[in-house]
Specification:
- With about 900 residues, the chain is α+β, with helices and mostly antiparallel strands.
């Protein structure tokens, strides 16, 4: 159990915390407590009692019961699945009733149009910069989505919560700063939306990582900044009294007087042996000339003069004794070779005179968690660091151990925010911090992103300075944060939330193979004494034996969980960024497979023109927002029981949820979701995901669109939406043309449709522009020649110009094209049936047409046959092929 000691006697005298921290009474779920400490004790006992059952839930962290209890502040923040979520939801639903009575909510609130607009938002706010993490979406960005899709009191879920910015955004909607309010209201007005309905929303944030939980629970708490500042001042006094001499050095001034200087940082360098004579060489001393600011690519041996690259020199291995683990270790040789100091009124300077210090008696805690198997653990092992404690320099370890001890022994009510400061400074205190003198005043470049790499030249920062610096940032940030949300450690595949209970989901899932979260978090989580249970971690990682298939399976289960808990008719926004088309398409497949309907995919960056990324290969090169919704239960049942009759209901619903008009630089953007090909793709996707027969072919579908909807600028609208579109387009300078890069036949067709939309053009007019738009094709795909694409998909006039197909001639054209594609697919099938019948290159559009026909004919065997013979990247990077292949695999 946690100790009843709140502060040391000295601190009690200074701050009288019982009056400042533990004011009461406090009422939670109808229970009244004298103060917060009594509430904390009661719910911690309850949490401890429930831990045996909670351990059975997916995503339960790795650690001891005491460490889970100590990191928790129940019922709000539990370092495990939160057993009080149902109570929170019930309480928040009651709050909604009161808000409705006050006129701050509408009973008939409904959102049909997605927030499909770029967002320009900096990353320099106090909250964003207080604590680093591998990925983070500024909470001001999330606020725009929350304000669009919800109203005050609504419940938001984020199962991949990371640092808890969704919760911060939900609370900030009730108390926005002036700048955020002005910017957001301006954006809403520019995008044609009504003024935001400001007011607090409630959030449930979950993540597998204890580090994420720790960060998120602090960002979603309220703290007395004056009391925290006094605690920080007291801690700094203790640190300087005990370790100040670690960071002092006598410096002789020009006038001969000696003065104590403050040490800002030390520089450490790897020592290697000359490949020719074996002489020891200090990498730092031989690689940079400070007098001329010259960086030498080659090291010149001071003994024999041999020039060599550092990686060509021989490593020197030394044997050391690890005091924390009581083990003998072998590590590469490093030595402290330079320090940077500062003197008031004299500025900064460097010296190579490194002072020796007497270390006091070691006391406190430094984690000794070992680096096991991991894709990133090879980085520290390369230099001989096999455990977390070996990532810190000796002085740093002594200071951190003592700091950890006094925080936990003497500042009980403030352990949470003080440890937030502690973990926020950890990244700047390891051996992973790089030193690059060629960068001048910015030589301290920090750790290499998303690695555990220990460089040949590193920085040992002053941890006392870092604590003071980070404390200022954290206090400023936390003073802008508030509570009222529920935070938990859990898997996104099991949120412990009731069915149909969440009003909106904003989520930022892992980016496939981009970041090895659990491995990178090992360093900080070791200090928290809780580790990520990575069994459900949605990444591609060789050490975990996870690839694209495993990633897709976990993401599909996660989105099915989102579908289960989201209220019918409500929306989800998925933020995603990945440089792999395979993972991008896998994510889209998982979303649709879970039952969501994708309504828009947009670039988050307002400066890049609101790119509708589903049509371009650059989709995976920036942060994207996928807008999707959960259909009503009545509609889902209608589709399942009578697919053919519900077809046009689906199209109407889909179009009613698509953006009507997207302004951009005085023009209106082409809304990709209203393109007939995209609409038909969405129809196919929805019906195939439910295992239903496709109720119509593309030719009849095109006819049906023309009969039932209004076509404007190549897009389809319902009658009411068409009227709104025409009203708004009058206010602009016309339709903007998307600058698409052509990497496959489908994109080529769409590019030509854009080019020919306003007027016919000849082949000679199109050909130069076509060549400029061509990008690299996928491995295994064949893009036909421009003339062949024109001949199959467009009409040639008597004067030699090419035009778009019209209603009276598009049926024959489509039949001709389909017949040609199926003929080519038949060749692929015959080739695949032969022994070793690989298909190194195919026409992607022919495979798509063939898969669709095979699915309609229930010929699932040929889908699998061809799918197994083509280049696998074609299958994984094309959501339509993947959908047919997965569906066929489940039916055979």
């Amino acid at each position: 159990m946690a100790s009843d000691i709140l502060f040391s006697d000295d601190y009690l005298d200074r701050l009288n915390p019982q009056k400042q921290v533990e004011q009461g009474p406090v009422t939670v779920f109808g229970l009244t407590f004298k103060n917060d400490e009594e509430r904390r004790h009661y719910f911690r006992d309850e949490l401890r009692r429930r831990l045996p059952e909670l351990r059975k839930i997916e995503g339960f962290p790795i650690g001891e019961d005491d460490d889970i209890i100590n990191l928790s502040d129940p019922p709000y923040y539990t370092a495990c699945p939160n057993p009080w979520l149902n109570d929170f939801i019930a309480q928040w639903e009651e709050e909604k009733k009161e808000l409705q009575r006050e006129g701050r909510r509408k009973a008939d609130f409904e959102v049909k149009e997605p927030y499909a607009h770029g967002i320009k938002q900096g990353k320099n706010s106090a909250i964003y910069n207080a604590h680093t993490y591998h990925t983070k979406v500024p909470h001001e960005v999330i606020m725009r989505y929350i304000l669009h899709y919800t109203q005050p009191g609504d419940i938001i879920l984020d199962g991949f919560a990371g640092t808890g910015m969704s919760g911060v955004a939900a609370a900030a909607c009730g108390n926005p700063d002036a700048v955020a309010m002005t910017d957001i209201e301006s954006d809403f007005k520019e995008n044609g939306f009504s003024k935001p309905n400001w007011g607090v929303r409630r959030a449930i944030c979950g993540d597998l990582s204890p580090l994420c939980f720790h960060i998120a629970s602090n960002y979603n708490s309220s703290v007395d900044k004056n009391l925290l500042q006094k605690a920080v001042d007291n801690v700094l006094k203790k640190l300087n009294e005990r370790f100040g001499y670690f960071y002092e050095i006598p410096i002789k001034l020009s006038e001969g007087k000696s003065i104590k200087a403050h040490i800002n940082y030390f520089v450490w360098s790897e020592v290697v042996a000359c490949k020719n004579c074996g002489c020891e060489m200090n990498v730092h001393d031989l690689s940079f000339d400070y007098k001329t600011s010259t960086l030498h690519e080659l090291l010149t041996c001071p003994q024999c003069g041999t020039k060599q690259k550092r990686i060509d020199a021989d490593s020197i291995e030394i044997t050391t004794f690890d005091e924390q683990t009581n083990k003998i270790t072998k590590q590469l040789k490093y030595e402290c070779c330079l320090l940077n100091y500062s003197i008031p009124k004299h500025g900064r300077g460097f010296t190579k005179n490194i002072p020796l210090v007497d270390f006091p008696q070691y006391e406190g805690f430094v984690p000794t968690t070992g680096f096991g198997e991991g894709d990133k653990f090879g980085d520290p092992k390369r230099v001989g660091a096999t455990a977390v404690n070996q990532l810190y320099y000796p002085r740093t370890k002594w200071v951190l151990a003592y700091l950890y001890k006094i925080i936990h022994d003497e500042y009980k009510p403030l352990v949470k925010p003080l440890m937030f400061i502690f973990t926020s400074m950890l990244p700047k205190l390891t051996r992973m911090n790089r030193y690059m003198p060629q960068h001048g005043s910015r030589a301290l470049v920090g750790p290499m992103a998303n690695t555990l790499y220990i460089p040949p030249q590193g920085v040992e920062n002053n941890p006392i300075d870092q604590f003071e610096y980070q404390a200022g940032k954290v206090i400023k940030a936390l003073s802008q944060c508030d509570g009222g949300n529920a935070i938990q450690i859990c898997s996104a595949t099991n949120s412990s939330v009731p069915n149909d209970s969440v009003d909106y989901i904003f989520t930022d899932p892992p980016f496939g193979a981009n970041i090895m979260y659990s491995e990178l978090n090992t360093v900080s989580e070791s200090w928290l004494k809780l580790m990520t249970n990575n069994r459900e971690e949605a990444i591609s990682n060789n050490s975990q034996h996870k690839g694209l298939v495993e990633y897709q399976e976990i993401m599909t289960r996660s989105f099915r969980e989102y579908h289960r808990v989201l209220k019918p008719g409500s929306w989800m926004t998925v933020e995603f960024s990945n440089t792999s088309a395979s993972f991008w398409n896998s994510l889209q497949y998982s979303i649709k497979n879970a039952g969501f309907i994708i309504s828009a995919i947009t670039d988050l960056n307002k400066e890049r023109g609101g790119l509708h990324a589903m049509l371009g290969p650059t989709a995976v090169k920036q942060d994207l927002a996928i807008s999707c919704y959960k259909p009503t239960k009545e509609f889902e049942q209608k589709v399942k029981t009578n697919p053919s009759e519900s077809l046009w209901d689906f199209v109407y619903q889909y179009l009613s949820h698509a953006s009507k008009f997207i302004p951009q630089n005085g023009k209106s953007l082409y809304v990709t979701e209203r393109d007939p090909r995209i609409i038909y793709d969405r129809v196919i996707s929805y019906f195939v995901q439910y295992g239903l027969e496709i109720p119509i072919n593309s030719i009849d579908f095109q006819k049906g669109l023309d009969e039932r909807f209004i076509k404007l600028d190549g897009m389809y609208f319902s009658a009411e939406d068409a009227a709104e579109y025409e009203r708004k387009v009058i206010e602009t300078d016309g339709l903007a043309t998307l600058a698409l890069i052509v990497t496959n036949e489908g994109e080529g067709i769409h590019w030509l449709q854009n080019e020919l939309r306003d007027h016919p053009q000849t082949y000679s007019e199109l050909q130069p522009k076509w060549m400029q738009s061509l990008g690299g094709t996928k491995k295994g795909d064949i893009v036909p020649e421009l003339m062949d694409i024109l001949d199959e998909n467009f009409i040639k006039n008597d004067d030699g110009t090419w035009r778009l197909v019209k209603e009276n001639d598009d049926i024959d054209k489509e039949k001709q094209r389909t017949k040609s594609l199926l003929k080519e697919f038949k060749i692929y099938v015959e080739t695949a049936k032969k022994p070793r019948g690989k298909l190194p290159k195919v026409r992607l559009e022919a495979v798509r047409a063939g898969f669709k026909q095979c699915y309609s004919d229930k010929n699932f065997a040929d889908i699998i046959l061809v799918g197994d013979r083509i280049q696998q990247n074609l299958l994984t990077e094309d959501e339509q092929l993947l959908m047919y292949y997965e569906s066929a695999s489940n039916k055979v």
